[in-house]
Amino acid sequence: MEWYPWLNSTYKNIISQHQAGRGHHALLIQALPGMGDSALVWGVSRWLMCSQPAGVKSCGQCHGCQLMTAHNHPDWYSLTAEKGKSSLGVDAIRQVTDKLYHFAQQGGAKVIYIPYAEQLTEAAANALLKTLEEPPADCWFFLCSRQPSALPATLRSRCMTLTLPVPAEQHSLQWLAAQTSQPQDNLLTALRLAGGAPAAALEMFTGNQWEQRSKLCQGLGTSLPDNCLALLPLLNHEDVALRIHWLMALLLDSVKYHQQNLRWITNIDQQPLVARLAEIISLPALHQSLSRWMQCRHHLLETPAVNHELLVTEALLDWEQMFRAG
């Protein structure tokens, strides 16, 4: 698993707590996508499973390290929803927690990793809570969540919350520049679109996200304000919520353009488009547009089995009607 330099300080702090005998039995890690929370948990887990760590590093040679490297350590558990399901049920929690009260198969630590804690059903969260209230000896829980506030308060109260801070923008740009040959404006735009998470910014260039965003930008420039529905094929994809995020970022930049506050715009590479949007959409209409698209995105993310195409079509038609009324 790839390691990221911005994790070093947090990693060392966690290990030093364990070295001092003050390691918390349950860490709830909040991080943006692309911040490397899974890499952090893996690194700490390797240290915990190592029988002869060298300072803050695992030795890499002992049997525990070899099992971790092979990804088949019997005392390391990763719990996620089954394929095709969106929730992590109580049976999966009970199957693991029942094993925790027995001796570790390798005679050392036991680690339970839940990469998407928000997948826990109410029953699963309650079952986990009982174990966290009276944790077995030498047993460590790592829960990761994008939105810890969505978890039951009782569960959060049994964990120590750790938030992974985004690196300084200049440090992230230096790291990105070493990973890809993209121009500086593109790197900065991707980084800001990713909320400052460097690995998520890099993913825009290693996949097809950058290309798809460019097509959306081109479509906005040619379709507004008279033919909003032409944007439907550019928005209605599996990653529709992400594409609406790109659209909202452009609209928000246009608000900043109206206010002559260009220093912190997100879409550095699309400043002519930002100016064009500010020209054809008044400031009140931009605020109204942002509200409408925010509502659409919320429904897409929070409503189970919602018809994506229907929601986006409705939002586009509302947007076109707003332009006509204006």
UniProtKB/TrEMBL annotation:
Residues 167-204 form the DNA polymerase III subunit delta' AAA+ ATPase lid domain. The keyword Transferase applies. Transmembrane segments: none annotated. Its EC number is 2.7.7.7. Keywords: DNA replication, DNA-directed DNA polymerase, Nucleotidyltransferase, Transferase. Residues 208-321 form the DNA polymerase III delta subunit C-terminal domain. It comes from the Bacteria. GO terms for molecular function: DNA-directed DNA polymerase activity. Coiled coil: none annotated. It catalyses: DNA(n) + a 2'-deoxyribonucleoside 5'-triphosphate = DNA(n+1) + diphosphate. The keyword Nucleotidyltransferase applies. DNA polymerase III contains a core (composed of alpha, epsilon and theta chains) that associates with a tau subunit. This core dimerizes to form the POLIII' complex. PolIII' associates with the gamma complex (composed of gamma, delta, delta', psi and chi chains) and with the beta chain to form the complete DNA polymerase III complex. DNA polymerase III is a complex, multichain enzyme responsible for most of the replicative synthesis in bacteria. This DNA polymerase also exhibits 3' to 5' exonuclease activity. This is DNA polymerase III subunit delta'. The gene is holB.
